Amino acid sequence: xxxxxxxxxxxxxxxxxxxxxxxxxxxxxxxxxxxxxxxxxxxxxxxxxxxxxxxxxxxxxxxxxxxxxxxxxxxxxxxxxxxxxxxxxxxxxxxxxxxxxxxxxxxxxxxxxxxxxxxxxxxxxxxxxxxxxxxxxxxxxxxxxxxxxxxxxxxxxxxxxxxxxxxxxxxxxxxxxxxxxxxxxxxxxxxxxxxxxxxxxxxxxx
Length: 206
Fold this sequence. Notes:
The chain is 33% helix and 32% strand.
């Protein structure tokens, strides 16, 4: 299931990313701002738990999110600014990282790095800016499921209709929050209109 928030600020921020004159610093900052909006939308119905702590008026019982049961997983390297945005907000959550690279000839993805611990009982917030064919995201979801993830929420900035359809077909229980769905994939499986390589633009690599 995917959710596509129709907020003017969100759409404006996404469209700003398409400007190729943006500096890497502004590109990363904009990715973070988009991620925080998507995170807000994704946690509207998140369960709350009672927590006790001392306030200036003495001990108080309040409802809070149990961040210890949340794991934030990013797909290297383009998702790192998004990862920062989530853990800045949920600073008691745990983190994991997956290195998944797409072969530009076969368009298939392969895992080259796995630094994700046991996900048993946890809600995993999976972040990756671009969903083209959906192959990398499907691979990441499969890894998280094998590690015991109880629930998976995917935050993504731009996707193709084909990529969204692939994920919804293979993993209908995963909830996707997507800022913008673009027109299509081209013959090379790149998103049109897209915004270029998000990792290269975020970190100024050649």
